[in-house]
Amino acid sequence: MAPIAMSPSPCLSLHQQMLQQATSVRAFSSSHTRDTTIWLNVARVASARLNIRHAPQHASAIACRQCGEAVVPEDRLDVWKDLPSENWAEMMDFWHCHKPHDHGQEKNGDDDDDDEHLTKRGYGANSSIAAQTRVGFVDLTSFLLAEEDCTGLRFSTPDATSTRSTAAAALDASPATQAPRMLHVTCASCAVHIGFYNTSIASVVLFKWQTTCQTTATASAPSTLAQSAPPTGADCLAATLLATLSRSGSSKSVIVPTIQAPPNPKDDGGEQQQPALHVWVLNSNITYASSLRPSAGPRSALKLLYKPIPVEQADAMLESFALDVQEVNFPVAVIAAAARGFEASALLLPAGERLFNGWRVALLDKWVS
After folding, report:
1. Looking at the 3D structure of the chain, how many domains does it have?
2. 187, 66 contact by CB (below 8 A)
3. With pLDDT > 70 as the criterion, what percentage of the chain qualifies?
4. CB 195 within 8 A of CB 212
5. Is the same domain home to 74 and 200?
6. pTM of the prediction?
7. Lower Cβ count inside 10 Å, N or C end of the chain?
8. Which domain holds residue 206?
């Protein structure tokens, strides 16, 4: 079974593992030939990490959380794989640009074979990971799947008023001269926005906070199946902010919309106009309790500062080299819900600690299994 837990995954520390291995090996050798081997071994770590396989007793179904209809049938997937961290492509580009060259030194041919092998495996510049049939890729906040493995989904372009049963039909019905980067994916049963379709890699991305999936229990009883409380959009946002902080070392992020939500006649338009959020993580691991939530008990959370900003300002900040901010992408509905949650969490703080130099103070709970 594929764990849906939001606790830190080994994928999140992939770059740390790679750098630690390169550092430890480099300490024992200063020769140029050995350095070349180091970089090849580092790339092998990434290759092995991506191909770790989880052998389930039976493949769990993935269902729409709102209506319960299966969007990936049970036993459809043969294997689950962890996706690498978001800076995987950047690390591979760095390896291709800065790996040592032989400069005329003798080579036994093994390095050429390794280079060719890694290139064929896709660990090179401008490479990307696409879905594979009967393989479920698990990311921190989503599932990456092949369209043929999914059922009960509807596809539409951002400007479309109707949906289609396949991505190809939705693209053919689009009036745009250029194919859109992403398509909306909704549940055919209840029409809830459940994910998107990435046209560049022809893959379906399903949001964890909009789906349910049977998960494995604790390591002490691996054969037992348990249905833990599924993560919400706020839980996924907290996990993403933590991963961004761990990956980049930057505590400031700008949360901008990935894709506008499909039109919903029940919406009053408020979510569609929701601005982006500028977030500054002050403390990534605090524990608090409040008399306003006596039944909740102690909670683990992030303490952060935030500002609602226009999307245009967020784009300018991300393009600026002077501002050290990281881009975090979420759908408009999740950003709007996060803003409301931030405002509600401020009521848990003393009145004098809810504002700081123009910033608003908030608490963001972390997901606990």
Report:
1. 3
2. yes
3. 66
4. no
5. yes
6. 0.75
7. C
8. 53-84+129-226
